[in-house]
């Protein structure tokens, strides 16, 4: 690692003030991405601002048809939450599928969404469920939040404070995990919401998480796995790496989508 100044913020306001003062300051929640990149010297922030101790950024609540999860809530807390399991069981199952126990007990929902890793799970849930990402400055619809691989609509110095998920009529998530990292080679989240059917795909697209419009149309007519048998996925838009080629990922999108529909039941 390169040398940096460490700060432990007790509130969102304190973190925001520290971000403004730092020459190249970065937030640390769970540190699942930031710390490894710093160890490899791929990142060299002037200041690291730890927000994991800010109480206002922790907790889960359900109000009416909305589940709100504070940004510093860990994956393990989401997976174990009785409220999440009752309201959106597919979201709890998604959280349980992330990494290993060590990752789930340190990684946070806010950090995952802010980083927008192209193989992360939460972006698919946020996009499929039509979530709202709330920051210390504004509210951003998930459709407008994810703008590309590792890119989001967040402005410099903007801090995610919570994510609100509308409770769907039904939803399911299925992923084909990398056996080592547990990241999604392909993950598909399918939801029947008040705005219709939404299908979000992670791990496959060469520009990050995306909605599968043709599948949404097919499932809108008949919500069954058979409905997407004839829907083809263009491998031209798929990511290709040492783990899986574009054609294989395109095939997996359909397979995982059918499993997600079955999981939604």
Secondary structure blueprint with pairings:
Blueprint: E1 5-8, H1 12-21, E2 25-28, H2 34-39, E3 47-50, E4 60-63, E5 66-70, H3 75-80, H4 82-87, H5 89-96, H6 101-104, H7 109-115, H8 122-129, E6 132-135, E7 139-141, H9 142-145, E8 146-148, E9 151-152, E10 160-166, E11 170-177, E12 184-193, E13 196-202, E14 210-211, H10 213-221, H11 246-264
Parallel strand pairs: 1-3, 2-3
Antiparallel strand pairs: 4-5, 5-10, 6-7, 6-10, 8-9, 11-12, 12-13, 13-14
Model description:
This protein has 265 residues and is α+β, with helices and mostly antiparallel strands. It has two domains: 5-50, Uridine Diphospho-n-acetylenolpyruvylglucosamine Reductase, domain 2 (2-Layer Sandwich), CATH 3.30.43; 60-264, Uridine Diphospho-n-acetylenolpyruvylglucosamine Reductase, domain 3, CATH 3.30.465. The chain has eleven helices and 14 strands.
- Assembly state here? single chain
Q: Which architecture of the largest domain per CATH? A: 2-Layer Sandwich
- Determine the fraction of residues in helical runs and give it as a percent range: 25-40%
Q: What distance lies between the first and last C-alpha atoms, to the nearest angstrom?
A: 48 Å
Uncertain stretches of 5 or more adjacent residues: none
Tally of separate domains: 2
User: What portion of the residues fall into strands of 2 or more residues?
Assistant: 25-35%
| DSSP helical segment count | 11
Structural class: alpha+beta
The count of DSSP E runs of length 2 or more, i.e. the number of strands, is 14
- Order of neighbouring strands in the sheet with most strands: 4-5-10-6-7
Principal-axes shape call: globular
- How are helices and strands ordered from N to C? EHEHEEEHHHHHHEEHEEEEEEEHH
Mean pLDDT: 96
CATH class of the largest domain: Alpha Beta
Radius of gyration: 18 Å
Largest β sheet strand count, sense and barrel closure: 5 strands, antiparallel
Reported by name, the CATH topology of the largest domain is: Uridine Diphospho-n-acetylenolpyruvylglucosamine Reductase, domain 3
């Amino acid at each position: 690692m390169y040398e940096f100044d460490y700060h432990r913020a007790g509130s969102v306001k304190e973190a925001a003030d520290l971000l403004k003062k730092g020459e190249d300051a970065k937030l640390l929640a769970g540190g699942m991405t930031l710390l490894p990149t710093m160890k490899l010297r791929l990142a060299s922030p002037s200041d690291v601002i730890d927000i994991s101790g800010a109480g206002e950024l922790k907790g889960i609540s359900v109000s009416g048809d909305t589940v709100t999860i504070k940004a510093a809530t860990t994956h393990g807390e989401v997976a174990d939450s009785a409220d999440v399991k009752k309201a959106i069981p597919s979201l709890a199952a998604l959280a349980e599928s992330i990494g290993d126990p060590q990752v789930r007990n340190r990684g946070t929902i806010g950090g995952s969404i802010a980083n927008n890793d192209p193989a992360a799970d939460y972006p698919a849930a946020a996009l499929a469920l039509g979530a709202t990402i709330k920051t210390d400055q504004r509210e951003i619809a998930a459709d407008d939040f994810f703008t590309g691989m590792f890119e989001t609509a967040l402005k410099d110095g903007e801090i995610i404070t919570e994510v609100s998920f509308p409770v769907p009529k039904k939803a399911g998530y299925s992923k084909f995990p990398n056996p080592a990292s547990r990241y999604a080679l392909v993950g598909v989240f399918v939801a029947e919401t008040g705005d219709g059917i939404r299908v979000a795909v992670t791990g496959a697209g060469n520009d990050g998480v995306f909605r599968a419009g043709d599948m949404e149309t097919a499932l809108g007519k008949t919500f069954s796995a058979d409905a997407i048998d004839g829907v083809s996925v263009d491998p031209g838009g798929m990511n290709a790496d040492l783990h899986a080629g574009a054609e294989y990922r395109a095939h997996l999108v359909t397979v995982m989508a059918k499993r997600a529909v079955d999981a939604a039941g």
